[in-house]
Specification:
The chain is built from 17 helices and no strands. The chain is an all-alpha fold. Among the domains are: 90 residues, no CATH class; 83 residues, Methane Monooxygenase Hydroxylase, Chain G, domain 1 (Up-down Bundle); 117 residues, Serine Threonine Protein Phosphatase 5, Tetratricopeptide repeat (Alpha Horseshoe). The protein is elongated.
């Protein structure tokens, strides 16, 4: 084989004069054979067979001077050329088909994009029209609201202006004793108008009006310092101003007003010691001062005020035993004392105060079962007693008290669904039962009570105070998660 390659190489590389002596078939044979050997020995394209297939051709002319091996090489080259030609044609067809498919897909995508853009433009136009309409509607509503506010403000200013005119006229008449009664009546009319503003939630205007009434009453009382009616009116104005300031969160100012009113009430009661109404006013004044001191975070001051109130009310109740209001006042003072003792950790004293308050309320409820106020008072006392028992680790006793309170609260809430106080008390009772961990009280029952508290609080979310609503829902959800 090596001799054959050498021979072929020498023939292919000999000079032109020497090739002229070599027969043409032999030269052709050598060239083809060399090319064939390069394809066989060194394949250059991936995918081609390492050995060329044989394509026998019986019609190959004989006498060409080619050997059988050379003929086979020629036939292999011819077969390879045909195979490559077919592959090339197939590749061309596939390329054409792929190009056509890609063109179809491009046209399809372009059509989809055009449709999407058209839909997007249509949707944007629709949204823009809705936005314009909404903006116009909001503008109309805003203008309407502004007009209502201007009207309300004008009416309020007109009312205040009229009241100011009345006061100016009253001050001019202060020096005329024969008009004192009429002036006092005009002041009471002004106070009623201010109370109406307060009921509407306009505390600023109500406070301004009541302060003006107080100033006028003080001027009127200065002409007759010993007039008990005018002094009582001044105390009433101070108490009303204190209530408004307390509602606004100005506890310091409310305390000053309540204490000023109490001084007047005590002075009037000292001049009329036989007057039950004067004594009752003093007791109520002590409760107001105790409440505001408690709100300010003081403990000793409120306890002294509540005990002073209780002492007065016990005397009044003993004097007028058949007066149910006097007896209820005693129960309220006992309850307040219990609250302070409970906070101070004196649970035994708190328990006794709550029991004394409950005993009075049970007597009142037994005498008048249809009175919902007495029923409500009983439920409140049961809850407070339950709180003390729970603090003393008597959870079974607390459970009994809470369940008793729940039965009353459910009955009241069902009878008056629109009464926010009854509904709120029901939320409180649900909460107490839901957070009480006692053996007789399964987790399923606790979850049920807490879910009831949450659901009821959500129904009342627009009616309960914002702070109460937020705190209730947040705490109830936390406890529900802990019980899972």
């Amino acid at each position: 084989m090596s001799n054959m390659k050498t021979q072929e190489s020498s023939v292919l590389h000999e000079s032109a004069s020497e090739r002229a002596k070599t027969p043409e078939p032999v030269v052709l044979h050598l060239r083809v054979n060399a090319a064939a050997r390069r394809e066989v020995d060194e394949p250059g394209e991936a995918g081609l067979p390492a050995k060329l297939p044989l394509f026998p051709n019986p019609s190959l002319p004989r006498g060409t001077g080619l050997s059988a091996e050379h003929s086979e090489a020629i036939l292999r080259l011819v077969g390879l050329w045909k195979e490559r030609e077919e592959q090339h044609e197939r590749a061309e067809r596939q390329l054409q088909e792929t190009r056509q498919e890609l063109e179809r897909q491009v046209r399809r995508q372009e059509e989809i994009i055009r449709q999407a853009q058209a839909e997007k433009q249509e949707l944007a136009e629709k949204h823009w029209q809705q936005l314009v309409a909404l903006r116009e509607e909001l503008g109309r509503q805003a203008r309407k609201h502004e007009q209502m506010l201007r009207t309300a403000q004008a009416e309020k200013e007109e009312l205040l202006a009229k009241q100011a005119e009345k006061f100016a006229a009253m001050r001019e008449e202060l020096s005329k004793p024969k008009h004192y009664a009429a002036i006092a009546e005009l002041i009471r009319s002004h106070v009623n108008a201010c109370d109406a503003l307060r009921a509407q939630g306009d505390l600023v205007a109500a406070l301004k009006g009541h302060r003006a009434a107080l100033a006028t009453r003080e001027e009127l009382a200065a002409t007759d310092p010993y007039n008990p009616q005018w002094q009582g009116d001044i105390a009433g104005s101070q108490e009303t101003i204190g209530e408004i300031l307390q509602a606004q969160g100005e506890l310091g100012g409310a305390r000053q007003s309540y204490e000023a009113a109490l001084v007047i009430r005590e002075r009037l009661a000292a001049t009329e010691p036989a007057s039950c109404e004067r004594q009752r006013d003093v007791a109520a004044g002590h409760v107001r001062v105790g409440d505001i001191l408690y709100a300010l975070g003081e403990w000793d001051g409120p306890l002294m005020s509540y005990r002073a109130s209780l002492a007065i009310r016990l005397k009044l109740a003993a004097t007028e035993h058949d007066n149910v209001e006097r007896r209820r006042d005693v129960s309220v003072s006992q309850e307040r004392i219990g609250d302070i003792l409970q906070v101070q950790g004196e649970r035994a004293g708190a328990f006794n105060a709550y029991l004394a308050s409950l005993a009075i309320r049970e007597e009142l409820a037994a005498a008048d079962p249809a009175n919902v106020a007495w029923q409500h008072d009983m439920s409140v006392s049961q809850v407070r007693i339950g709180d003390v028992l729970q603090a003393q680790d008597d959870r079974t006793g607390a459970l009994i008290r809470y369940q008793t309170a729940l039965a009353i609260s459910q009955r009241l809430a069902a009878a008056e669904p629109g009464n926010i106080q009854w509904q709120r008390n029901l939320v409180v009772t649900y909460w107490r039962l839901g957070t009480l961990d006692v053996a007789e009280h399964s987790k399923a029952e606790r979850r049920r009570y807490l879910a009831g508290a949450r659901n009821l609080a959500e129904k009342l979310q627009h009616k309960l105070p914002a702070g109460d609503r937020h705190n209730w829902q947040k705490v109830v959800r936390q406890v529900l998660r802990s019980l899972r």
